[in-house]
Design brief:
It is built from 18 helices and 2 strands. The protein is an all-alpha fold. The longest helix has 32 residues.
Length: 437
């Protein structure tokens, strides 16, 4: 007969066969199940509701509050009496989805052991600008047919978010080769980057060839693009990206993940900018397309950013003058990331103010629309943005500073999300204003 053996340690005893309890909190131990429930419960509720009362769920809820504004934006006129403006329901829903997505990305990158800091924050800027340029290209009529919907908010945020995450994982894979194999791994990483660039060019060449050969055969709704840039220009930009990464590696003496990630982003952004440049050079229309030319205001490309820079300098100057009394005020003028975030949101305020004050544009977001109507002037965007961002930065850099110092990844992701909410719409509004679309 086998008996349990009791082992004594300093007067305490434990059973040798006693099972150890699962480590971690309840949330961590059941994380996969919780994510399944977060996704599945709304889907099941809406699915069952649609089967029981399809008109209520689709016509009066999903279509009215979510899909109709997207479709109205795509076709350029109200759909079912619904305009392309945001409403309180979809705005709050997108806010919740953003928080959940942010936490999900955080957990995923944590498992990959990616700990981005200040360098990664700045490396995400080209991806944010890419989304804005693509959105303006859609406004200009470059995309047609079903492709239009891919570049409509909020779908474009999801699209660019997925592209950014994939490129971050690719960059991590490329950069990690040096850690594993040293000098040979660095060279292998560079050639891996070059191979990805080559594969991208092959795909673009195939798409461009299909577009050119079938442009006259396909209808506008089937073509999905009004104009595509020459593959030669794309190839030159890809070579420049590869040589740029090589130069960074030689300068730094190492293949860093944020360098690879940044070069990927600037490469995509350069291609999109050349597309926009073609529109500008043709005087507000796409080459070979007979449409009424847009009334461009290219001078705003200089005036709007300068206005935002002036207001940012004013905010930083006020904070600097108050630093002697309140030492924490230095967060508004001494930290580059905070200055970039403040400038991004004041750029959004500057573009909105200019477009509404002197041109015939309208505001789509709920809170700004309410405040502009309440005060009677779009200038209210400046104090609104400055105050809100100042409070957010205070919370991040003063109230929960110690918590974020323990988790650099989470702090970086939060700041990137805040930057996106300012820089993306600000850049889009600026480019729309300049291109007259």
């Amino acid at each position: 007969m086998v008996h349990d053996v009791t082992i004594h340690y300093g007067g305490r005893c434990s059973m040798a066969r006693k099972k150890s309890k699962p480590k971690g909190s309840f949330l961590r131990r059941n994380e996969p199940l919780i994510w399944v429930l977060i996704i599945a419960i709304p889907v099941v509720v809406l699915g069952v509701g649609y089967l029981v009362a399809p008109k209520v769920i689709w016509d009066q809820f999903l279509f009215h509050y979510y899909w109709a504004p997207i479709e109205a934006d795509a076709v350029g006129h109200p759909v079912g009496g619904v305009t392309d403006a945001y409403n309180a329901v979809d705005t709050s829903t997108y806010g919740v989805i953003l928080v959940l997505a942010l936490f999900g990305i955080f957990r995923y990158l944590k498992r990959l052991d990616i700990e981005p800091g200040k360098e990664m924050f700045f490396a995400t800027i080209p991806y944010i600008l890419l989304g804005s340029v693509l959105r303006v290209l859609q406004d200009s009529g470059m995309f047609t047919g079903k492709a239009t919907y891919l570049f409509i908010s909020p779908i474009i945020y999801i699209f660019i978010g997925i592209v950014t995450l994939l490129k971050l994982v690719e960059s991590h894979t490329i950069a990690s080769q040096e850690k594993k194999m040293g000098q040979s791994g660095r060279l292998r990483g560079l050639w891996s980057f070059g191979a990805i660039m080559g594969f991208f060019n092959i795909l673009y060449l195939i798409g461009y060839t299909f577009y050119v050969n079938n442009r006259e055969l396909l209808s506008t709704n089937s073509r999905n693009a009004t104009f595509l840039m020459s593959p030669v220009i794309v190839a030159v930009l890809s070579i420049a990206a590869f040589l740029g990464l090589v130069a960074l590696v030689r300068r730094r003496g190492r293949l860093y993940i944020h360098d690879v990630f940044s070069v990927f982003g600037w490469h995509f952004l350069a291609i999109a900018c050349f597309q926009a440049l073609a529109f500008i050079m043709e005087g507000g229309k796409w080459p070979g397309v007979e449409v009424k030319a847009a009334s461009m205001h290219l001078v705003q490309l200089l005036l709007v950013p300068l206005l935002a820079l002036g207001v940012t300098a004013l905010v930083a100057g006020i904070a600097y003058s108050l630093t002697r009394r309140c030492s924490w005020m230095e967060i508004y003028w001494k930290r580059p990331m905070n200055l970039v975030i403040m400038y991004a949101h004041l750029l959004d305020a500057s573009a909105t103010f200019t477009a509404l004050q002197w041109f015939t544009y309208g505001e789509k977001h709920v809170l700004p629309n309410f405040l502009i109507g309440l005060t009677g002037t779009p200038a209210v965007m400046f104090p609104l943005k400055a105050i809100v961002i100042a409070v957010v930065l205070y919370v991040l850099d003063v109230e929960i500073k110690k918590d974020l110092e323990k988790n650099v990844l989470l702090g970086t992701l939060i700041r990137v999300a805040i930057l996106v909410l300012g820089l993306a719409p600000g850049t889009r509004d600026l480019l729309r204003l300049a291109m007259g679309v």
